[in-house]
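Running this now, will post back.
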Amino acid sequence: MASKYPSHEEQSKDVLLEAISEEDSSFKELILSLPKEYIGVPNHYFYFFQGFWASPSQIKTIISFQNHFQAKDSDVIIASLPKTGTTWLKALSFAIVNRHCFSSLDNHPLLTSNPHELVPSLESNIYVDTFCNFPKFDLVNMIEPRLLGTHVPFPSLAKSIKDSKCKIIYICRNPFDTYVSYWNFVNKISLNSSCPAITIDDEFERYCKGICHAGPFWDHMLGYWNESIARPDKILFLKYEDLKEDINLHVKRIGEFLGCPFTKEEESNGVIENIINLCSFKNMKDLEANKVGEFGRKIEKKYLFRKAEIGDWINYLSPSMTEKLSKIIEEKLSASGLLFKVSS
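Update: finished.
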């Protein structure tokens, strides 16, 4: 399928780079020194920074996060690539950690607030650029344990996170479903910004080259995977498919990992089941708090909830695309022992 977009060579400017203040000349020089790739939206690029791809505004906030964030030993960091179950994991973690504060589900914060509002992103919500107009959070007065999110690869996390005793929960998803969900997501954002639709073929070629938010996806997963093997007390590595298969088991695993295991009494009183139901896809998608409004970079909340199905990729990817991505997964991940169950 032919691309509807101008080629990389035909793009003459980057609107996000141009939005940066002229006073910040040193940052512009940094960006202009980096490899860049067109991302399917007219006049928008990703730049290869510290081994991963990001936009200029994202890089600026990540640098601020790296330089200024001071982790506490009690912090909980929810890490992931986009569209791998992040919203679900944030909701589950918030409900598990705060279950004694909100024993009644009638007035639970997850009924009135999106999980990304309750577990803010370090680089998208907290350390923000003046030109992005994001909400800011008061880290100093956040109730502990502070639950915070990030899409930043492990090597580029703030040093205080890696050096402290804070916990990291990482979730990943099989790359087939991740790609389809990611493509649907960026396409909705593009169309909402009055930009042309992004073809599944164009985006797939970039994805296979590793050009996606915080990608390459294989490096992102392997960074947290290898660290979870070296420091299992520091990082709990989860797979979306495993949670779907036995969510009860993994809710208990998360509670144990975070130092707040469920008691026998809680189990017999249905506390785990209540948390699972509260954070279920159907319940979360039907809530008014997740249907209306925006978060982060003016992303509509309703875009966060699509299907939550395993194996939906089969409805989108051609046999040749499936073969190509399968070879990349085999080449990049097989030696690590990180394997995925793929429904087809």
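Residues 175-192 form the longest helix (18 residues). More later if anyone needs it.
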